[in-house]
Hints:
alpha/beta; Rossmann fold; 7 helices; 10 strands
Amino acid sequence: MEPPDSPLRKPLAHEDAAPDGFAPTPPGGVAMKMTDVTIGSLKAPEHIVFDEVNWSVAVGDFWAIGGLHGCGKSDFIATAAGLMPPLQGTYEVFGHVLDRGFERDLLSTRLKLGLVFDGGQLLRHLTVAENVALPLRYHKDLSEDEADLQVGRLLDLTGLTRWTDERASALSRNWQQRAGLARALALKPEALLLDTPLTGLDPRDEKWWLEFLSRLSEGHEVFGGRPMTLVVSCDDLRPWANRADHLAVLRGRRFVPLPREAAPVEADDVLLDLLDPSTP
């Protein structure tokens, strides 16, 4: 039997439950669905960044969505994560429509989505452990010891144990990004969205992220072996081509899925043509 503080210990029944206490959505169901969606900008919400987005993500899918700098990848991920509503159209998450406002009866649905911000977006005056503990403290009725135990497992899982009591401001970008990942996993989401997680990483850290996310997609033992639905945005699709199930490009205010025959790394000309802003 694994010790209680081991990241390989089988989760307890109450730990492995979905955020709303119901069983996770079965494979093959729809995790996220955009229908004729118009997406605004985080900085200027009424400014249209993407229009007529039609996109369906099945439970267990792994999507990689590429785009040039400044094309609106963060706006797309923020909308998909439920941080801001679409300007037009319908966005459904696990069968529930997310609209303007923050209805309390939809909180359990929203908590099925985890989000890793670009750069982690930690609270710099808190320690790494305190940052990771935030969702547990806010959303779970846990004692301090219970929360600390779960935080310890997440830090061990993401290689952050030595930084436990360091302030977030003392960490380099790559470790802040990992702390953001640990925080996003704290509530055991059914779907995880990541905004350009490979930006600014050296080859060793990039390899760690690619392998770790592949394990989540396949079903990580820490989360009961349940495959996690993943959506990542990126500047370069090539690292994801042989890992993600689906690829897409954001260009010209459109969401453009790539057919699987255009997805291999060798199809650079196809990807460059789609990303070229001069291409109509």
